[in-house]
Every structure is written in structure tokens, then in C-alpha cells.
Design brief:
This protein is an alpha/beta fold. Helix content is about 40%, strand content about 15%. About 30% of the residues are buried. It has one domain: Rhodanese-like domain (Oxidized Rhodanese, domain 1, 3-Layer(aba) Sandwich). The chain is built from six helices and five strands, in the order E-H-E-H-E-H-H-E-H-E-H. It comes from Nostoc favosum CHAB5714.
Length: about 110
């Protein structure tokens, strides 16, 4: 599975590339604490509610970056997306925790 660093994520976000698909698999209560603008929230615990909608929500050929707290849940989502035929999926290494430490200190840690 491909990985992208939080520094690379910051560069991609600042480039304004609208073709990137951004998915955050954290829980709603986690988003209330810390979030990055532009990500679509698909809580992994609610998979049964959104799993069958993914092909309609996202382009399987477009670059898809997946975020969670530390990178474990997002890795699971990446594996699932690849199994669904997504061809350009990247896990954000270290998750929002690393992003708040290494890129944007205004994002709270939890």
C-alpha cells in the first residue's frame, strides 16, 4: 500500500489540486476535536451505512488520500478501497496526529 507523509499532504492541499479525493475515516466526535478542511468523513464504525455508496461518491481512478488518527484505520480503508477496484489510493502516514505535530500546530492533539 502506498503512503504519503503529512508534509506531502500539506503540499498537495496547498497546491489547490481539486482532483484529489480526501477521505477521513475517524469518528464524528474525533472530527469535533481536530479536522482538516476538504475531507469527506466516512467513519469506519459506520461502514454498513456508507459502504455501498462509495462507488457513487468517489472516482475509483482518481487519487484518493485516506486519513485517520494515527494511520491504522486509514490503512484498513485503503486496503478495502483497493479491493473495490480503486487504483490510486494512499494512506496518510501518521494521521492527523502527525499532521498537528509536524505541519499545523493549530490543530489540537488528542
Amino acid at each position: 500500500m502506498n503512503q504519503i507523509s503529512v508534509q506531502e499532504l500539506a503540499q498537495r492541499l496547498s497546491s489547490g489540486d481539486v482532483s484529489i479525493q480526501l477521505v477521513d475515516v475517524r469518528e464524528p466526535q474525533e472530527l469535533e476535536i481536530a479536522s482538516i478542511e476538504g475531507f469527506v468523513n466516512l467513519p469506519l464504525s459506520q461502514f454498513a451505512e456508507w459502504g455501498d455508496q462509495v462507488p457513487n461518491l468517489f472516482n475509483p481512478q482518481a487519487e484518493t488520500l485516506v486519513l485517520c488518527h494515527h494511520g491504522i484505520r486509514s490503512a484498513q480503508m485503503c486496503q478495502w478501497l483497493i479491493a473495490q477496484g480503486f487504483t490510486n489510493v494512499q494512506n496518510i502516514s501518521g494521521g492527523i496526529d502527525a499532521y498537528s505535530v509536524l505541519v499545523d500546530h493549530s490543530i489540537p492533539q488528542y
